[in-house]
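User: ok so my PI wants both of these folded by tonight, can you help

Assistant: No problem, let's get them done. Here's the first:
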Amino acid sequence: MLAKNCCKTMEMELTGWKAIVYDIARKMEQLPGGEREKIRSNIEDLHMLIAEMDERIDQIRDNCKPETCIDDIMTEREKFNASLSTLRVSTEEAMKGLGGGDFGG
C-alpha cells in the first residue's frame, strides 16, 4: 500500500468497525422492554465504544502522517483489539439473557 493511502485506509477500517458496532447496539435497543432492560449496561458499553472509536477516527484525521502510519496502525489496532475483547465479553453476557430465537430479525 502506498504510504499516502495508509492513513485513509486506517480511518476507513475503523469507520467500518464502528458501523458494525452501531448496528449491534441498534438491534439490542429494539428488543422488547424487559429483554432490553436485562442488557442495558451492555448497550451502554457499546455506545461508549462507539464514542471511543469516534475519538480515534478524529485523532487519525488530525494526526496520522504517511511517514508514521505503520506505527499508528499498530497502536490503533492494539487499542481496538483491547476494546473488542471487552465488547465480546459484554455481548456474550447480553446474549445469555436472551433466548437464541429472541435476537435479530
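One down. Here's the second:
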Amino acid sequence: MEAGAQSQPQLDVPGTTRGRPPAWVLGAIPLALIVAALAALLTVGGDTLGERLGPPVEEIAVERTVLRAGEIELAVRNTGPDAVTVAQVFVNDQYVDYRTSANEVGARGTETFTLNYPWQPDSPYLVTLVSETGATTEHEIPVAVLTPEPDGGFYGLMALLGLYVGVIPVALGMLFLPFLGRVREHWIRFFMALTIGLLGFLAVDAYLEGTEIAESGTGAFGGAALLFIGAGAAYLGLVALDRWLRSRGERARETGASAFTLSLLVAIGIGLHNLGEGLAIGSAYAVGELALGAFLVFGFALHNTTEGLAIVAPLSSHRRPSIARLALLGLIARAAAILEAVIGASAFNPELAALLIGVGIGAIVQVIVQLVPAIRDRAGRALYPASVGGILAGVAVLYVTGLLLTA
C-alpha cells in the first residue's frame, strides 16, 4: 500500500464475522430448547399436575351408516379426549344385539358396530348408544334404505349419472363459442360479467352446502374450518398455477391473463367445485335421498349447461382453439365429478366433503379475481350498468335452474 493512502472500511457480512456464531446456530439453539421443553411436558409434565377431577369426557358420534338385510352397521368415532366404552345399543328404545371388535372406542379412534336388527325399508329409526357410565349418544336414520353394494352395475350407474348431469351438459354449453365469436366487444364484456355471476352463485351455494355437510359430521377433524382450509389452499394453488402458465409464455394482456389461461382457470375452478357436487350426488343416492328420475336429471343438466358457457366466454374474442383443447377444458370441468360420485356413494365422509367443497370455493374466488379485469370498460370501470346486469343475469340463471333440483 502506498504511503499516505487511506485504509478501506471493512464490510461486516452477516454470518462471516470472526468470533461470532453463524446465524443458523443462533436459530437452532432456541428451536432445540423448544423441542426439549415440549418433550419434557409430554413425558413428566402430566405427573406434576395430579389426577384430573370430574367425570370422563365422553363424546362419540356415528360417522357412517350402512344398511344391509337384517343389519345396521355403524362406524363410530370418538371425538373426545377420553376412551369411551359402549355397553348397550338400542334401536327405537328396543335393546339389540351387536358385533364389534372392541366395545371401547379410543380417543380420536373409530370402531364398527354391527347391529342385528330386522329394519324395514322407508321407515325412520333412532339408534341410541349407551356408555358404561350411562351417557347416551343418539343417531337418527330418517329413512331406511338398502345401502348399494359397490359392484360393476353400481359403478356403471354412477358413471352414467355423471355423464348425464355433467359431461354432456357442459359440452352442450360450450357450443355457444361460435355465437360468442360473432358478437361485439361490449357484449363480450357482458358475457364475461355473466360468467362472474355464475361463478359467484356457485361459490355462495357451495359455502352453504359445505357448512351444512360439515355440521352433520363428527367434527373430529375441524368441521366447518375445513371449508376455509380447502378454500385457502385452492386459492393459493391456483395463483401459483397462473404464475407458472404465464412464465411459460401465456403472458398477461390488457384484460388480465390470456384467453386460454382464463378459460383453463375457469374450467379448473368449476371442476374443483364439482368435486364436492359429485360427492353430494353420490352420497345422496347411497342413503336414498336422491331419486334418479328423468325430471331431476333434466334439472341437473340444464343447471350445468351454463357452466359450459362460462368456460368458453373468455375465448370469444380470440382465435378459436382446437377441438382437442376444448375437449380438455370440458373434461377438466366435469370428468372428476364421475369419480367423486362413485366415492360419495361408496365411502362418503362429511369432513372430506367439506374439505373438497372448500377447495371448490377457493378455486372459484381465484377465477373471479382473474376475470374482473376482462369486464372493465374503456374508462377502466369494473362496475357499470352492463357489467352489473351481466352479473345479476348469471346469478338469476343459476338460481332459476337450481329450483328444478328441488322441485
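The first strand starts at residue 60 and ends at 68. Residues 60-141 form a domain with the Immunoglobulin-like fold (CATH 2.60.40.10). Good luck tonight!
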